[in-house]
Design brief:
Blueprint lengths: L1 H14 L6 E6 L3 E8 L9 E8 L9 E5 L5 H16 L7 H10 L22 E7 L5 H15 L2 E7 L2 E8 L1 H13 L1 E4 L5 E3 L3 E7 L8 E6 L2 H10 L3 H12 L3
Parallel strand pairs: 6-11
Antiparallel strand pairs: 1-2, 2-3, 3-4, 5-7, 5-10, 6-7, 8-9
Helix pairs in contact: 1-5, 2-3, 4-5, 6-7
Length: 256
């Protein structure tokens, strides 16, 4: 049962991958405790932290232990959110439910409170599409993998490039933040490739290198093949993305 819990934990961490969104508190052979900070869509400045404790002895057949923290909500309001999540969890017993609970929280229009004034950061994504740079370790079935990625991008209205450079694979995606989270969830939890024996398998080695705003806007999704690092650098410079190469991609290349 812990394998299933670890798999769900990995997916949640991949989806809530921005700074301070996910925090692992403890992990052992029988339970995990972690926190996710998110906001209702109707109140994007309202940051709510939900702490989950998943026990292999009961989860997912029983709801997880949950606590709610938010400096902009009263204790009574936090308890109300906790009750709301508990009611949702009761209807989801028997299957992994953390993403369902967090999605329900995001879609809850009744949570208001008094949001804090938050500073505008360089990578603030509240004013438009976000850019996400991903790194894939490998593709065994390139045709199948690319077909799946293109299908998801078309469905979720995501644009960008998948770049093959020697043995490195990078994906630059742009689009709506919620659709980006859906993409990341699928890429980590659905079968997209095959293992060494040819059996369908999930992506275990997807890394999110960057997520934020970027001035370069892509209008479609295409495959880009470059022969070496110099050509990759030149290609990104021509795409007005040299900063992404220097700050995000180059550090990965330098490790290998």
């Amino acid at each position: 049962m812990m394998d299933q819990i670890y798999e769900e934990l990995e997916a949640i961490e991949a989806i809530f991958c921005r700074e301070n969104e996910f925090s692992l508190h403890s992990k052992d052979i029988s339970s995990v405790e972690f926190a996710v900070t998110t906001s209702p869509i109707a109140s994007p400045d309202l940051e709510i932290t939900v702490v989950f404790n998943l026990s292999a002895n009961s989860y997912p057949n029983e709801p997880p232990s949950v606590s709610v923290q938010c400096s902009s909500l009263t204790r009574v309001e936090c308890d109300s959110v906790k009750t709301f999540l508990k009611n949702i969890a009761e209807s989801c017993c028997g299957a992994p439910m953390i993403l369902n609970l967090l999605t329900a929280l995001q879609e809850n229009e009744d949570i208001r409170g008094t949001p804090r004034n938050t500073p505008t950061l360089e990578n603030d994504t509240s004013k438009g599409p976000i850019t996400c740079v991903l790194h894939l370790d490998h593709m065994r079935n390139k045709t199948r993998y690319l077909k799946t990625i293109k299908s998801w991008c078309e469905e979720l209205d995501l644009f960008g490039r998948i770049i093959f450079c020697v043995h490195w694979i990078f994906i630059i995606l742009q689009g709506n933040e919620e659709n980006m989270k859906i993409y990341l969830q699928r890429n980590r939890t659905q079968c997209v490739d095959v293992d060494s024996s040819g059996k369908p398998c999930k992506e275990r080695l997807l890394s999110v290198l960057y997520q934020g705003c970027h001035h370069k806007k892509f209008m479609d999704f295409e495959v880009c093949q470059v022969e070496n690092i110099a050509e990759l650098r030149s290609w990104m410079a021509n795409c007005s993305s040299l900063d992404l190469f220097k700050d995000v991609i180059a550090p990965v290349i330098s490790k290998r």
